[in-house]
Model the fold of this input.
Amino acid sequence: MRWIGTSFKMTKTRAEAVAYATGLREALATEPPSGVRQFVVPPATALSAVVAALGEDSPVLVGAQNAHWEDAGAWTGEISVPQVADAGARLVEIGHSERRAHFGDTDATVRLKVAATLRHGLRPLLCVGESDDVRTAGRSVAYVRAQTEAALDGLPDDALQHVLIAYEPVWAIGEGGREPHPEDIAPVFADLRARWGDEGPALLYGGSVHRGNAAGLLEVPHVNGLFVGRGAWQVADFLRLIALTCGAEGSVRAPG
Ligand code: PGA
Done:
């Protein structure tokens, strides 16, 4: 099983998000993809509208871009896991590098958010990734492993299988991000798979993914899917990426 998902970040009105979800629903009804799970992560304002537009039995999971670790309380401006679940989210993105850089998310709060998400039966999408300085110092593997351990260590195996890890190098994300070569990211995926096991979290790659480079990135051993920003904000692009992800299903994987 492979995964393909997109976060809209801070883009799209409710009407735009609904138009996207409707386009997705219609296209997937005509040609349901097999061997791939899809998710979309709209802004919180559009969560319930996207869930409604996708329809009740949609194969597309809807996620929140963040959630607080407490269930309720005096946390102005925050949204809890029960609240995003109430809006229809089944997945919570946690620890994206933009949140770590600008909104104070730390390894400690990321861990609390992962635990809260699992406690409420939603799927955490844990984002990890090193800066360019760490990469040039040759410390990518150790850095990313430490981030995942800080977030996941101590979780029981039956919880780990519900976790998605998105390895998103900070140097690859967003405008000005550098597209990775498969050899840049392969050692991190090999280490994460060795650390967390074959039955552990699915491992996704994110950062400057688009329809032109997706197939090559999916060929990297241990990559179980893609997490996409700008390259999937048009529904036609996301549909193309879904098709590419299906096509990679069954391709020969390196052992181990
Ligand atoms: P990008 O963003 O695809 O626009 O580089 C990826 C991400 O931040 O998840």
Observations:
- Residues 249-256 have pLDDT under 50 and may be disordered.
- The chain is about 40% helix and 15% strand.
- The pocket of 2-phosphoglycolic acid is lined by residues 7, 168, 173-174, 177, 206-209, 227-231 (CB under 6 Å).
- The beta strands are 2-7, 36-41, 60-64, 91-94, 123-128, 164-167, 202-206, 225-228.
